[in-house]
Design brief:
A three-stranded antiparallel sheet has the order 2-1-3, sandwiched between helices. It is 75% helix and 5% strand. It has 16 helices and three strands. The protein is mainly alpha-helical and 413 residues long. Strand 1 and strand 2 (15-21) form a beta hairpin. Helix 7 (138-150) runs antiparallel to helix 8 (153-210). The chain starts with a strand and ends with a helix. The chain has three domains: 1-45; 72-136, no CATH class; 156-413, Type II secretion system (T2SS), domain F (Receptor-associated Protein, Up-down Bundle).
Amino acid sequence: MPTFKYIARGADGKRVDGTLDAADRQAALQMLQQSGHTALSIDQAAAKTGATSIKKRLSFGTGRSHKTKMGPRDTLLFTREMADLLSSGMTLGRALHTLAQRTGESVQSQIVKRLRDEVVQGSALSDALRIYPDTFQPLYISMVRAGEASGALAESLEGLCSHYERVQEARGKVITAMIYPAIVLGVGLISVVGLMVFIVPRFASIFDELGGTLPLPTRILMAMSNVMIHYGWLILLLLAGGGTAFRRWLNKPEGKLWWNDKQLKLPVIRKITTANAFGHFARTLETLIRNGVPILKALVIVEETVGNEVIAKEIAAARDRVTDGSSVSGPLAAGKVFPPLLTDMLAVGEETGDLPGALKHIARRYDAELDQSIKVLTTVLEPVLILGVAVVVGFVAISMLTAVFDLTSGLGV
């Protein structure tokens, strides 16, 4: 007879879980109802097979475990489905149970099942989300807590969906803008390496047979080709090692601060960085305040999620300068990092009592500036990269042709 695992709520409202043997799922449900329990989930226990036991032993032996973390797309999908289910009138526990019934043993299913179990035991959803800090950031948890406190959890989840969709859209614009320049740069590097490794050495053997003195550009080109052929592997190792060390340093607080500071000073990159950061700042703060999160707590969350250490430090300093707990435009303006336009619009929103509305306008303004800055970057970067590749290839061609003309003229050809 099959064995069924169940999670139920007893007559006293407490969670009860266990196993029972029944002919089928319907019979197991009737048995629970007869015992005075309200079934929350009933799943047939999988039979243990030799293959399953071997797999478990291998997993135990290697000590490996899957990292329990959902990606941004899965998190957004989970949030959207939860918002839809709650908006339809479904209770929180039932909504989580519905999502947990998906087939497969994906990471998302494991997380949803754990959240369901915690909520069934009486925990608040915002507290259960803290189990997975890599998936649910402080912004997410604070929004859910605000929704629970106001009784509008579905609306808070809808706000989270809109926020993360706009964030992904902004990130996608930057990534899309860099695809074509990356292709141009990659093709250019491959072309130059091919010329230096395969074409130039053939000309070098011809020049050796003809004899004579080669022009200076040709000698420089030959030396570069020899270095690349004989020590190319060493150059690659040094570049890979240096790149890895530099990347690790950038992940440290001092490296991240240095890089973020440079991003705010480079001519074209500066506009993209500031537009993205200020737009994210306005969207996040607007979302939190609109859902009832206190201003000081909202500033703490924005500081953690803004994505630029220099701007984050300024937000922390502004938070320390906030004295009345409501006005934020003055403290932000005192740091000279946030532009006057942003702080002035914030001040107007505070004066009219519509700070979320002002932040929404600020986010739209910087989204438009981000689009314009990306267009300028791609417009400038594409011809610069093409010109750079053309200069390098042209140098190779001119160096070869100059040597050919000099040697053939000396032979009277």
